[in-house]
Specification:
The chain has 9 helices and no strands. The N and C termini lie far apart (53 Å). It has 210 residues and is an all-alpha fold.
């Protein structure tokens, strides 16, 4: 009975995520309505709680998921070798665990950001006119931005090796910057959780191939 409950829970998560994705893509206004109501609550309520925790809960959850998967695999092997669990039963247990984990991740992704990909674009909500640009305009923009960056680079603090030195609290600075943007663009207003650093940032950072 326990195994059947896990299957039903995984199926419910999978179908709910699929239904929400379908509604976001096919029903006009659904994604926008979700973004300004349900999603705002998801940011406000859990965000305020997790902001009190000094480390990244998402990173910790990732490691717990990996360790749980590894532990479950070894338990399954042990049950096959010692408890003489049939291979067909073992395959069913493994498939059940994979399906539940995949359904949970899909559901979390959907309610966390998947629906928001189909909301009204920021440019439309902020009154920006999106137009095409000629190649020469893009080249001029890149040159202008590069010149501004070079000028700003002379004003930032660096160490003996010429590397940028971060001053103050970058997390609080980021929150203040987003709050200021929220005053200028109402669509960006609201609560912003405390940004967290990662214990193993190099491991979780995508390395660009040369």
């Amino acid at each position: 009975m326990r195994g059947k409950k896990w299957w039903l829970a995984a199926l419910a998560l999978f179908l709910t995520a699929g239904l929400l994705q379908f509604l976001a893509r096919q029903v006009p206004g659904f994604a926008q309505g979700y973004a300004v109501t349900v999603y705002r609550l998801l940011v406000e309520v859990p965000g305020r709680f997790f902001s009190l925790i000094p480390f990244s809960v998402a990173e910790l959850g990732l490691y717990v998921l990996i360790l749980s998967a590894a532990g479950g695999f070894f338990v399954l092997v042990w049950r096959i070798a010692v408890k003489r669990l049939r291979l067909l039963q073992a395959a069913a247990c493994l498939l059940q665990a994979v399906f539940f984990a995949a359904s949970l991740l899909l559901f979390t992704y959907t309610i966390g950001c998947g629906i928001n990909y189909h909301r009204t674009p920021f440019s439309a909500e902020s009154g920006f006119a999106v137009e095409g640009a000629a190649r020469e305009e893009l080249v001029s923009l890149c040159i202008a931005l590069a010149e501004e960056i070079n000028e700003a680079a002379l004003q930032v603090p660096v160490d003996a090796q010429g590397c940028f030195v971060l001053e103050g609290d970058p997390a609080e600075t980021a929150r203040r910057a987003m709050a200021a943007l929220g005053e200028e663009y109402p669509v960006l207003s609201g609560f912003y959780p405390q940004p967290k650093g990662l214990f193993f940032s190099r491991l979780l950072s995508k390395k660009k191939k040369s």
